[in-house]
Amino acid sequence: MSSPYPSQPFADWDGTPAAARALQQTLAAQVRLVDDFPPLRLIAGVDVGFEEQGQITRAAVVLLDAQTLEVVAQSLTRIPTSMPYIPGLLSFRELPAVLQALQALPAVPDLIFSDGHGIAHPRRLGIAAHLGVVTGLPTIGVAKKILTGEHEELGEARGAQVPLRDRKTGEVLGTVLRSKERVRPLIVSPGNRVSLASAPRLVMQYVTRYRLPEPTRLADRLASRRDEKAAAARLRR
DNA sequence: GCGACAG
DNA sequence: ATCTTGTCGC
Predict the structure, then answer these.
(1) By percentage, how much of chain A surpasses pLDDT 90?
(2) At which positions is Mg(2+) bound (predicted)?
């Protein structure tokens, strides 16, 4: 199969926030909330970090065996940051680097877990949904905080979940999921080609002993240089 | 107008 | 996101 990755994630974008929001509405209409992925063989986790006071965007992708969770490959990309962080426009800041990192992988994943939201977004196009639409691949958003939406109290048990809904319409945007006991819940929402019901189930399928599912947890470590920083701090002491 | 606001 | 040590609790 040919590469599903476009060279750049925003066709005809003039760079303005207003145009970005308009483009999001167009792309959001292309999101498909139905389970449409093959038996999972390879899954990927993507996340982005920054260096040099934010001037360098660093994207990390980890490819895992869906059965053993063994790391099959990793990819890291560093490019100049092109835009500031604006709530609601995260994908425009981070996707360029993410796409480059994905292209560098030796194989195309069957499902991608992305840090950030899928459709649980003001215009239903969080970074996971945006990534899913431009690549055509199945994606799920795994965020640590709510961007939009509200929910009822959540149970304390591992696996407890409650729907995240639009405050005005009641539309279900995702799931507030307690991936582990005594931890703040994760906000899980479909990106593309995954149903609202399956998203949290798939996340729990890859949660081991940490709050975050393995794909996202490992990508997060790479993107934020967890190991390097820990080593540096240790040496200084 | 005011408050909220993924990473 | 990032800047940063130790510390309380499972």
Answers:
(1) 90
(2) 47, 115
